[in-house]
Amino acid sequence: MKQVIWSAAMLSMFSAMLSASVVFAQAETPRIDQRQANQERRIDQGIASGQLNEREATRLNNRQDHINNLEDKAKSDGVVTKKERARIRHAQDRTSRHIARQKHDRQQR
């Protein structure tokens, strides 16, 4: 009987520690996420309207993947520092400029 109680107590303690670590490991970045969604939408709109050809869209999507990797790496320790946010913001600024340039150049599909 003692063994059953002891194992139940250990199991509940382990699950509490696991849930606390999962909550701690998820850093919140709503602005970064929203901006990523906006940029992906701009790329999709450019493809649909013919402003972006396939090669341009692929390059821009690769840039988006790079930013997602930067964000994942920054979140890996559970805290996104100001320096990490600045680096991500800079990459997003560059990507935004590239999207605008590619959408407004003379190339067609």
UniProtKB/TrEMBL annotation:
Biased composition regions of type Basic and acidic residues, renumbered to the chain: 35-44, 53-83
Lineage of producing organism: Bacteria, Pseudomonadati, Nitrospirota, Nitrospiria, Nitrospirales
Gene source species: Nitrospira defluvii
Highest rank taxon of the organism: Bacteria
Renumbered residue ranges of the record's region Disordered: 35-109
Cleaved signal peptide residues: 1-25
Keywords: Signal
Biased composition, class Basic residues, residue ranges: 97-109
Protein name (record): Uncharacterized protein
